Amino acid sequence: MSHPDPRPLQARAPGSPLAGRLGVPGDKSISHRALMFGALAVGTTEISGLLEGEDVLRTAAAMRALGAEVERVGPGAWRVSGRGVGGLVEPADVLDMGNSGTAARLLLGLLAGHPVFATMTGDASLRKRPMKRVTEPLSATGAAFWTREGGRLPLAIRGAADPLPIDYTLPVASAQVKSACLLAGLCAPGTTRVVEREPTRDHTENMLRHFGATVSVEDTAQGRLVTLEGQPELVAAPVLVPGDPSSAAFPIVSALLVPGSRVVVENIGLNPLRTGLITTLREMGAALRVENERVAGGEPVGDLVAEYTELTGVTVPPGRAPSMIDEYPVLAVAAAAARGVTRMTGLAELRVKESDRLAATFALLAANGVKATIEGDDLIVEGTAGAIPGGGTVETHMDHRIAMSALVMGLAARAPVTADDAAFIDTSFPGFATLMNGLAGTEAMAAP
Ligand code: S3P
What we know:
By secondary structure, the protein is of the alpha/beta class. 29% of the residues lie in helices and 26% in strands.
């Protein structure tokens, strides 16, 4: 399965170190939320640093279809005039969320609390992904859903006229499910309660507070309890979107793997619920330093300095998964370059990402001569101590992160690595290859 117009891309060792300072595109999670909360707030929300990738542009289009005014005023600078909590209108046409699970699931939460009828679809990847994980808890609001077999898209929703608050314990560690419940709770009177056994990214909680909602977080015997007081007045507030740590992961791992490199990624989000990869790379011995740490727009940010290091294999505990859930494919590339074995445990959620990322990551390694095994939900990678054979073509399965991971491997392998379709990189990291070539000072990534 690929893009209607697949764009293969090949990466080879640049022959010289990667060097330079760079910024990466805005955080995808925060960008989706900024547009959605802006649409629900009274007044005009000014957003800077918005990720202008395809996933976020789908959210922008959906918010327009629901009656908000959404306007681009410059690169990364967007203005959203909201309709107030409960003020969204019925969309006139199908909402197409493209490749984006976050856009689809968070939007379903919003729609559940509004008395509207809506239909939703997505691309071939998104139409395979499980939606029952949100439609089930959201049904408790009084919203009704009609889905394809297995709870997949396309689906139809009739939102609740008088939504009830949800009280839900997440069966899987998912910030999207938590956020969908909280977004529905905005329109319901009373208190919405969500319990998560393992903490997941808390951008929704942070941004709700930033817009004036009352959200509390408490550690309980059952896990982390998040409560939201319903029907707040959300008031427009400026949002500064930091660089996406999940995008920064690609130049950072590249710098660690290409001998002699030193790269600084400026202004990246360092929310502790997102930094599992940094922790893991440091355990592998990586020379990674944070400089200029500060708080911007309610989120911790800083500049990350990455220098070439000979890495050593480690065991990554399952409890760390939510804080680095999108980073396992590129960690597997780092593990392939390391000395010794890396065991990544508790990866069940990887099977339901833009692709089955556990299988796709395994195939990426295998196609390039790296020994790996899957045992249950664990991925075990045998490091090559800096001698990744490469030479393979990687099936990206409509998954931006598999494509970028394959290309990072190509920078550090003995023979070039090809991604069969790099088109989906635009969902989260427009300009990826140009930026990496700038660090390399050569066309290390080019059409084969
Ligand atoms: C996201 C949550 C994660 C992550 C995704 C973005 C979010 O998904 O993989 O890229 O913005 O809430 P899950 O909630 O499915 O773990």
